[in-house]
Amino acid sequence: MAGHIKCLMMELKDYLKKYFGFDTFKGNQEAIIENILAGRDTFVLMPTGGGKSLCYQLPAMIQDGTAIVISPLIALMKNQVDAIRGFSEEDGIAHFLNSSLSKNEIQSVKDDILAHKTKLLYVAPESLAKDDNIQFLKQIKISFYAIDEAHCISEWGHDFRPEYRSIRSRVDEIGRAPIIALTATATPKVQSDIQKTLGMVEADVFKSSFNRPNLIYEVRPKRDVTKEIIKFIKANPGKSGIVYCLSRKKVEELAETLVINGIKAAPYHAGLESSVRSANQDKFLMEEIDVIVATIAFGMGIDKPDVRFVIHHDMPKSLEGYYQETGRAGRDGGEGRCIAFYSYKDIQMLEKFMQGKPVAEQEIGRHLLMETVSYAESAVCRRKQLLHYFGEEYNEDNCGACDNCLHPRELFEGKDSVVKVLKTVIAVKEFFKPDLVANVLCGVADSTIKAYKYNTIPEFGSGKEHDEKYWQTIIRQALVADLLGKNIENYGSLTVTPQGHEFLEHPHSFMIAKERDYDDGGDDSGEGGGAMVAADQTLFSMLCDLRKDIAKKRGLPPYIIFQDPALQDMTIHYPMTLQELGNIPGVGQAKAMKFGQPFCDLISKYVKENEIERPMDLVVKTTGNNSGMKLYIVQSIDRKLGLDVIADGKGLEMDELLTEMEKIVNSGTKLNIDYYIDEVIDEDCQDDIYEYFREAATDSLEDALKELGEDDYTEEEIRLMRIKFICNEAY
């Protein structure tokens, strides 16, 4: 036997050429294959594109018997089987056994195996557990077991599959043979968990570098995300790419939006019929479409080497998931752009989804999410962070291929701010969630803070020199540094950890990167967030003067006509007709018709006199699907439902519902909420707030709270009356 193995080893490159057409192995491939042929348990940690599949495919072709490949996805099995059959004249050389097959097809597969035609049999872990399959597999000679995507075994992995944890017991029942476990993403903790669960602690470990030098990493604030994605794809015509979304609904909406904007795209998620899923995958592989919009179910093992970009519409639940998904780009060593759109609101939503799960599972999930937050918000080299996460050091000062290295951010000393946060969390008896702690620091007395009399403690207003967004950033960085924790059993209230108490006793330097507005966004409206700058300052000044004149004639505050972000957009797009003006975010057709003609006339004259060549900038066509939330809110208000009922219907906090309502009225739709306001706000208070906005120079909430008195009026009351005022006066 030893001589036979030695002979095989001497001819490995010949077999490689014969079966796969390659002249040389990549990285550790040859050593891994030799180890398998020697009958040793083998653990392979190799990044996407490193050639993991060949590590078990080639020894399976060489050895007697059939290799059992345990794989998590039907689409992955089909792709791998098709690829193997492409190298052979005999289709029976590779098969898969799963729920997609009919009884006749299953029998045909078994016949080929019994006839010794099949070298590779792909099975799902669920199929491996079926008694009839176990009894069948006991009859055949198994060369080895290959467990693909082995990270699915670990609860600490990014794609945990409970069925994977029973694989070892099934293997023992069928009959022992060498095991090779393969994964592209595993931290040291996950690796240890995999080896223990599979009973292969003594396995030989082959770990390749996780560094993908050809990939460029970038994290952008999640603002105008659909428009930004379309602009990027159109700037890279004909290139293959994947856009990942967390929800099936968003996948379908975005895919449809891309198509109507002239991009060849298709959706992919587990909710589609299998025939549709397979057809869309094949179109992508055959380059009939350029872009696939998918949930994380897509891409595992997809052998498309020329994917040029991977875009995350939503940040994934873990860095392992992010790394594996970005690893689909540039597998041929060519260009690979990896762009992620990040908003902390997405992280908060993921935390909400975890509520109700066992506490241990929530703890693991929260830990993985905090690693993602740390990656997204850090000013450190993205490559260095990713490699460190997987236990690999990267010693270069500047990778030259990530946004943090190409455009370094300014750091500031956050020690004193962290101390203020920790003291405030203790002062509110570790009972408040981050938003309320930020409000205490800013000196914003909402009803909850007043109810607990925390507006009387020394910490109240101790950080009013900064806004709520600043304090949310400090809180997040304290969470990442493990100075703060979250009490899962008390709905995520902040707690000070032992490390946090140590920091209070001995404060030390705590450097924080200046924000890139990561806390703004979370939607595609483009109406909020970020300090925009007018592209044409001269025109902007002229538009401001015109707005002031019109407001004076109509007896209205200028912001009721058009707000600054709308004027700033006008200096970029130069709208010259009412229809073009109505497409500007924050205007809408109703406002355009009511106030717009003088603005169009001014812009037309300005463009002509200055010989300006207007940019044919992107106007995103929509399918109407994105207006689902708007339609729900408008119809619910028409039915005079309570705002608390409306919020509960969509799982929103009241603050989130008010934000959605503000977007609706600012984009040109009137909402009549008098019925609700009359129930919750005293008539005299209504009059006071209304008159304030009639005289105010801006619609700033902070200015309103300061002027009206934070002890007399809540933020919610002022926001409700501001919505009413805008609806009454602007439409």
Structure description:
The chain has 731 residues and is of the alpha/beta class. Helix content is 49%, strand content 11%. The chain contains 36 helices and 17 strands. Strand 15 (484-487) and strand 16 (493-496) form a beta hairpin. Helix 15 (344-354) runs antiparallel to helix 16 (359-377), helix 19 packs across helix 20 (434-442) and helix 24 runs antiparallel to helix 29. The longest helix is centred in the middle third of the chain and has 19 residues, at 359-377. It is globular and about 90 Å long. 42% of the residues are buried. Mean pLDDT is 84; it is low at 1-10 and 519-533.
Q: CATH homologous superfamily of the largest domain - what is it?
A: P-loop containing nucleotide triphosphate hydrolases
Kindly name the structural category.
alpha/beta
State the helix count.
Answer: 36
- Low-pLDDT parts are 1-10, 519-533
Helix content: 40-55%
Main sheet specs: 7 strands, parallel
Total strand segments: 17
- Report the principal-axis shape: globular
* CATH 2nd-level architecture of the largest domain: 3-Layer(aba) Sandwich
Distance between the termini: 87 Å
CATH topology-level name of the largest domain: Rossmann fold
Instruction: Look at the structure and give the mean pLDDT.
Output: 84
Percent of residues in beta strands?
Answer: 5-15%
As laid out across the biggest beta sheet, the strand order is 3-4-2-5-6-1-7
Q: How many distinct domains?
A: 5
CATH class of the largest domain: Alpha Beta
